[in-house]
């Protein structure tokens, strides 16, 4: 192992902690305290959900530019300073006097999400570590998978003590005094490291993205991840309400929701352990089947509420695996020529799906209650598996 890899272990783990705390405060805090926010503000679920939706839309618009900023050498600054903007934004949500202010603050949080979460972190690591970035990124995702595990119990504690709006201020402090200093230290440490082999910049590859857009596989991959991320986003946003609708107590619902994070980590760990024995296509099909099975189990939890824990394990493992498999599928099915541009284009669909999920879920809830959410999410998972099977089974049979 090159010396570019070994000395980086401590700062990599520090960045993993920083991503965990940032995701906890920005991404998971909203679903963790949604019932409390509904009770305190008097706003509708649709009004509250419009905030995260707008934030994801801003994130989707800015994400294609994030890699360019990192390439220009600003990745460390983004990871160091933009979590401060995230912390201020989350704190401001706790003081939002109206739905209009709520939306405006979420627009600012969309900028923060685009510049200090996974996409920026991974691009920064790739630029600094070259080939060693693959292991570093895996370490980050393994730790950050526990963000939900941290957030749901912490959100319950904070909301009981200070209310939902007060809990938001608590989450902002978690980012400000947790994520910001560890990110700053990690960035400085990584910048002091000398890369054993500076990654070679490949010449521009004009036409690669346009060629990919003409291939059915591009649109199939985009559809699969759009459907699964819409499914996962809807379920995650309203998970506490859905679990209680299935007959679980508030404490049981919180505990089950917290199991999704460890399940994501477990799924990624299994993929890492069996990477040489299972193809990307087969792992993707098993992951899609896991999400579909989770939908069936959630429906059946109306007869046995304890099944929500099985749902959490299947949903978390399936979604966690798929998040790691997406770039591998892009490379396997669309090739490595123009990989960055093509992968970035594919990523827009799941980001937009995440943007739509809170409002789409709120609309389903208003139109048909929890039952419509169960049915719609089950249909999304089934469609994702069907498209995946059509795309990947032939690839697997060909030995690809």
TrEMBL record:
How is this protein positioned relative to the membrane?
Multi-pass membrane protein
Q: InterPro entries annotated for this entry?
A: MFS, MFS_trans_sf, MFS_Transporters
Query: Known Gene3D superfamilies for this protein?
Result: MFS general substrate transporter like domains
- Molecular function per GO: transmembrane transporter activity
The record's Gene Ontology cellular component field reads: plasma membrane
- Metal-binding among the record's keywords? no
- Presence of keyword Transmembrane helix: yes
Task: State where the protein is found.
Answer: Cell membrane
The principal localisation class reads: membrane
Highest taxon in the source lineage: Bacteria
* Annotated transmembrane regions: 12-30, 42-66, 78-96, 102-125, 137-155, 167-187, 217-243, 249-271, 283-301, 307-326, 338-360, 372-393
- Name this protein carries in UniProt: MFS transporter
Give one Pfam family.
MFS_1
| Keywords associated with the record | Cell membrane, Membrane, Transmembrane, Transmembrane helix, Transport
